[in-house]
């Protein structure tokens, strides 16, 4: 009995031993599987983990203006990361960090409580925050340098440059367009790290700087600033919805400035509505109105349909075509081609259009670059809208002749204008001159590019001389006439189309002026667009004065000396034929008068020596001193002695020189 | 010692080898952490050496005490153990570390009553089962009292909470009941009625549920709940056949949680490779083999059960620890006997070895 039970006891203990043997075998087999069969895969994964890839935002390249002035730079700032494994009390740490980083305690604690070896706490903090967190000496909380984008000129050129997001991804403007060049190689800190993110003693490797390439723009910061300053003033004054100024070197297609209103500060882009981010000069299109007559004239002259001497009967201001009536602001009888442009007669333009025919009109509209993208290196360009002639209504040949029924962008308009200024060659507009590697090597260079010859040199000259009359006495653009520089230009006032009714708004206008100067050898072509001005709304009233200011300041800045204009015997306005058309509230000649009388005030002339153009422009922004800029760099000379008492509106020449 | 076979020196030798390996591995896995935490890379090494010395001295002492003594004072030992478990739960007496109250402060040291409880329960069960040998088939005699005593102990330990020890204790009870020859139907009944309780304990506590889920699919969320076990896989995987070499492991550098206690086997796998793993397994196998043979060769039931209980205690903890680290079992914080850092565990396991040695020394020759 005892023996038998003893035997069973031994058997049961043996079973326990067998179970143990089975478990030992299972563990051995599993160890074999992990260590031999999966050896490679697992050690790879482990290796990858040690090479903890903290992707560090690379330093983006710098964006310079044409004079190598910084427009966008990257600065090293601290990013805070945590090693939650090292943090014993996530809530305590979160509580201490919360007020400094302005993050909720709960959010922080959640981040810190997850047992990961690495997590970002707050990226790109301010130096002040960094110091405060450093002073807390929290274990498991550490810092790494990251690049942060900084736009030193704030709003200036914001709509051109755009901005880059937190992860150094270009989101708007040039930052987006040239992101691949600017961003540089994403740097990973490929040091071997332990789970606390500390560099292991073996295999230490420093993070290599992988800066992106720099951009050198065609933009000139000073001209950009001038354009923005004048645009803002004009838009504010006219209580307009928005505005655009584009300045271009008509001979090369280089964009010198694109000012847009409203502006935004790319340093804090998220605080602005996204509608203010875009570059309206490129993304938005509008009906060009009477500015389009210039291209009509060019086509008609080029085709020999119309000669300078031909006259057209302008129906005394009212012309019925296809059951509709075209009006002129003033009634005219017989007008020459030149006067049709000068006085901006819609009826006259329509008649030229009729004579030219829709096929040829369409041909030249397209030749000047309308209806297709210019290919400018900015994102979101609109092609505008130009319908093929077989879709035109009967009246379209008339209306398109004076710029209604087509839509164009400001970039297209200035490119077309520049083709005339450039003796017939259409240039491709561009905004980046060079892409330069961090070592200073030019990686890519953009040079002027002729798209096509649009009109002959002779036609270009003829159109230019017609355009010159616009700013002369009696023309629609007299307010664009500059002191000392000859201007070739054209006004435009376009009613805005109403997309819901298909017709036009009765009270919403776009006021335009486009021109180039000096007319015969232009340094700059400028388009001014004021969208929905209140009160005065004519291009000649609202946009032309802006052109004048921008053109003058730009030429002075460029150091182009004013030439005395040889008095041309401009034709006196054909007053006999002109009679006011007051009935529909349109402009009477009498309305065109100097805007108010400026009160005379006296100022003490400041000493500008050593100041930059921007500083001076800022300083005198509120006063009425008329500063004329010559050259660039730092102020070395001024025509009015510092300390002298000057009258309101007095001119002062300031000469600038690049510091040697 | 006439007529006796003397101490089981093989058992002693291999155990001391494990303790020695443990000291080395505790240092290797804790040095960097310790130098960061305590500014002393030898912090854990020094303490582990001290524990080993204390443990070995106690083992030598215990090996000279006739183990039959414990049969007489089994209830005293059990009572002391239960009291200390209750004391731990009294606020102010028990020391709370990382959410668990497992320690009693004794001068400069903290001891874990639950480690003592394991040995106390084995002594109680061995004595009680030996006493009730004749009526072991009766549920009320063979099972019920043991179930109640173990149940009380389990409740106290789960309260700490210490799931690892709880499972050990339950498993030891089952093994001893099984060895003592209770009806299998009774055992199955206990298992079936325990199942809902176990399920309740797991499913209702988020971190336990997460551990089970991450055990079933560790790669489901490798950065979070599956983090520990995946880090352990990396350790074994990186080790290969011969390992990175002693001290060369990277996983202990804060990737593995508790590399000097709960995941020391992973560190061994990484640094000493499959060879090291198999040697450790072999050492434990020899320990268990010698322990089982001591149990079988012992002439009286108490000695048999006691030897078996101690052997199973060591073998089971080792198996669970190794099973967890290789991903065969859900994550449980159980130290590897003789190797992992920890004073109470090392000293108590060495005391257990002393008892085992004493049993082996009293086996009659032939």
Structure description:
The complex is a heterodimer of chains A (660) and B (366). Chain A has 660 residues and is an alpha+beta fold. Chain A folds into four domains: 2-37; 54-217, Penicillin-binding protein 2a (Domain 2) (Alpha-Beta Complex), CATH 3.90.1310.10; 221-591, Beta-lactamase (3-Layer(aba) Sandwich); 602-657, Trypsin Inhibitor V, Chain A, CATH 3.30.10.20. In chain A, the strands form ten sheets. In chain A, strands 2, 3, 4, 5, 9, 19 and 20 form a seven-stranded mixed β-sheet that branches. In chain A, helix 11 packs parallel to helix 13 (346-356) and helix 11 crosses helix 17. The radius of gyration of chain A is 34 Å and the shape is elongated. With 366 residues, chain B is mostly helical. Chain B has one domain. Helices cover 68% and strands 4% of the residues of chain B. Chain B has 13 helices and three strands. In chain B, strand 1 (94-97) and strand 2 form a beta hairpin. The radius of gyration of chain B is 20 Å and the shape is globular. The two termini of chain B are 15 Å apart. At the A-B interface, helix 1 and helix 2 of A face helix 7, helix 10, helix 11 and helix 12 of B.
At a glance:
The complex is a heterodimer of chains A (660) and B (366). Chain A is an alpha+beta fold.
CATH superfamily name of the largest domain in chain A?
DD-peptidase/beta-lactamase superfamily
Portion of residues within helices of chain A: 25-40%
Shape of chain A: elongated
Mean pLDDT of chain A: 83
CATH class of the largest domain in chain A: Alpha Beta
Number of distinct helices of chain A: 20
Q: What's the pLDDT, averaged over the residues of chain B?
A: 86
Descriptive labels:
heterodimer; A: alpha+beta; Penicillin-binding protein 2a (Domain 2); Beta-lactamase; 4 domains; 7-stranded mixed β-sheet; 5-stranded antiparallel β-sheet; 22% strand; elongated; B: mainly alpha; 13 helices; globular
